[in-house]
Write a structure and sequence with these properties.
The protein is α+β, with helices and mostly antiparallel strands. The protein is about 20% helix and about 30% strand. The protein is flat and about 30 Å long.
């Protein structure tokens, strides 16, 4: 796994996050999107190519990832 350097990245917290639950933040990178746990800002970061992120969001909107 490649280390992603994101210290100057502008992170945006999910509007579905609150102080008592699971929280995520996303940031735009030069070559994609990064996602991290907002409670562990120095922890691991997942990075996605723009095409992967777009497909992921489309799948969410289409209900493909809904739990039964």
């Amino acid at each position: 796994m490649k280390r992603i350097d994101t210290p100057a990245t502008a992170w945006r917290k999910s509007s579905y996050s609150n102080s008592n639950s699971n929280c995520v933040e996303a940031a735009t990178l030069a070559d994609g999107i990064a996602v991290r746990d907002s409670k562990d800002r120095t922890g691991p970061v997942l990075a996605f190519a723009r095409e992967q992120w777009t497909a992921f969001i489309a799948g969410i909107k289409a209900g493909e990832l809904d739990l039964p």
